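Key result, reporting period 2: structure in, sequence out.
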């Protein structure tokens, strides 16, 4: 809502990725004492008339055009100087004008003036976040650092000793990392009968897998064939294992960043400016916004409507 208003009133430029597109209001209507129906009763609009809500299940808010109304994705071109990336324009790209006459797009969500895709963390980092590894480690390491009279401030850096402590912490929690290739190959070996399925079983003895594997569907290998397959798979396992070890080294910069953020948050609290500065230091969208603000000529040009030639 705020981003759309800033755009429509030409009060600033929006940098980042297209917003999610949740702009509807639901009301619970009682049917009886125990049952209710949840009904969409309103939509949010920006000052130019754009509906923020993304069309869902064919339901469109007032003012939204269908794909057959002439404003489809194919009719929007992202030229050299265009501030809208074509792959970020929604199917329902109804055009609107800001107060100064700049073209902005509807169809749900707010499409930024400058598209900057967020950096997606590597698989290892996503697993560590899922395990809450950085936060849990920081709680333990913080006490150790304080006991050693280590100063944690805005200039605090993660050294090799702290990184070694992090690896020891992961070992103590029996953390075993398999990269995506290892996970897929492990599944392949089970499905082809090279190794037995040792997944956790429920009380009925059934394997708790996303898609259970029937012995009937597995290939029937001759003993000599199976032995050869096991030797080859072991070689592949060793290669993938080395790659997995390299994932920690390859992500060391990001790992240090997240450990530092967690320790600073433990020291100052999560809402402190020191913590925010640490979080935004390597944020590609934040840095792009700073660069755009510093480039006054480009900033001014993007805020003006394009002149017709």
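The corresponding designed sequence is given below.
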């Amino acid at each position: 809502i705020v981003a759309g208003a800033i755009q429509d009133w030409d009060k600033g430029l929006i940098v980042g990725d297209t917003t999610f597109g949740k702009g509807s209001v639901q009301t619970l209507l009682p049917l009886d004492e125990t049952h209710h129906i949840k009904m969409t009763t309103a939509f949010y609009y920006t000052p130019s008339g754009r509906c923020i809500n993304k069309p869902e299940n064919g339901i469109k808010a007032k003012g939204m055009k269908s794909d057959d109304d002439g404003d489809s994705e194919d009719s929007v071109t992202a030229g050299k100087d265009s501030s809208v990336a074509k792959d970020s324009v929604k199917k329902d790209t109804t055009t609107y004008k800001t107060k100064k006459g700049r073209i902005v797009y509807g169809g749900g969500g707010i499409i930024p003036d400058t598209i900057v895709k967020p950096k997606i963390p590597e698989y290892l980092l996503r697993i560590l976040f899922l395990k809450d590894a950085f936060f849990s480690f920081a709680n333990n390491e913080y006490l150790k650092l304080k006991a050693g009279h280590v100063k944690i401030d805005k200039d605090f850096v993660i050294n090799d000793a702290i990184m070694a402590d992090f690896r020891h912490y992961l070992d103590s929690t029996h953390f075993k990392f398999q990269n995506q290739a290892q996970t897929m190959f492990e599944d392949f070996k089970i499905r082809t009968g090279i190794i037995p399925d040792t997944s956790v079983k429920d009380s009925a003895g059934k394997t708790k897998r996303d898609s259970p594997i029937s012995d009937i569907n597995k290939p029937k290998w001759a003993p000599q064939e199976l032995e050869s397959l096991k030797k080859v798979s072991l070689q592949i396992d060793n290669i993938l294992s080395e790659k997995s070890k390299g994932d920690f080294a390859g992500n060391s910069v990001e790992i240090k960043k997240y450990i530092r953020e967690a320790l600073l948050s433990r020291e100052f609290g999560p809402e402190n400016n020191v913590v925010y500065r640490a979080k935004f230091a390597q944020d590609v969208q934040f840095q792009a916004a700073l660069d755009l603000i510093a480039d006054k000529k480009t900033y001014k040009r993007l805020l003006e409507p394009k002149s017709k030639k």
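The mean pLDDT is 83. The two ends are 33 Å apart (CA to CA). This case is discussed further under Risks and Mitigation.
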